[in-house]
Design goal:
about 180 residues; 8 helices; elongated
Length: about 180
């Protein structure tokens, strides 16, 4: 270990300790941004929109492109985007997205017996299997996409005023 390099030791902590430390560090970085509070809150809320969007695997790319196009602070947009992380929030967000989408579409929350049978007994070498899997996958992906977009809008609209209030309060303490 290099003298004075404390960051390498933090990676050996259990996730239950590591995650809150990372969250606090992210909040500190967000509060230290010199942009106007409105712009920082907007970048963070756009990141939150991305985090809840159904485009899994593209969140970081989307955040980078949007930050570049609109000249958003990358720390703020990434902080919002990484609200969705694979250790704690990914599975609940996916389940909530599907449930909200199914509710909006008037569909049952449970998956069809045919779809579950395809997953339990895959026949990977038959065209019929793939055709049926694709047909039933749409029954899952459409509600997931609708629910994910709904969560994106609601959560990003809630994130903006909350983040703005936090940033203004911090700036008020620094000036006063």
């Amino acid at each position: 270990m290099v003298v004075g390099c404390q960051s390498s030791s933090i990676h050996h902590l259990p996730l239950t300790i590591y995650q809150p430390l990372m969250l606090r560090a992210t909040v500190r970085r967000l509060l230290a941004i010199d942009d106007p509070p409105e712009r920082t809150a907007l970048a963070f809320s756009v990141g939150v929109f991305i985090a809840f969007s159904p485009f899994l695997g593209l969140h970081t790319v989307m955040a980078t492109v949007i930050a570049f196009l609109f000249r958003f602070n990358k720390i703020a947009i990434y902080a919002g985007t990484f609200v969705n992380n694979p250790f704690f929030t990914l599975v609940p967000i996916i389940l909530a997205s599907y449930a909200i989408g199914a509710f909006v579409m008037g569909r049952p929350l449970s998956l069809s017996h045919e779809y579950l049978a395809l997953l339990k007994e895959p026949h990977l070498l038959t065209a019929t299997y793939w055709r049926e899997l694709f047909h039933h996958t749409r029954d899952v992906l459409v509600p997931f996409a609708i629910g994910g977009l709904t969560l994106s809008v609601v959560c990003s609209l809630a994130a903006y005023p909350l983040t703005l209030r936090l940033l203004r309060r911090k700036r008020g303490k620094e000036q006063g």
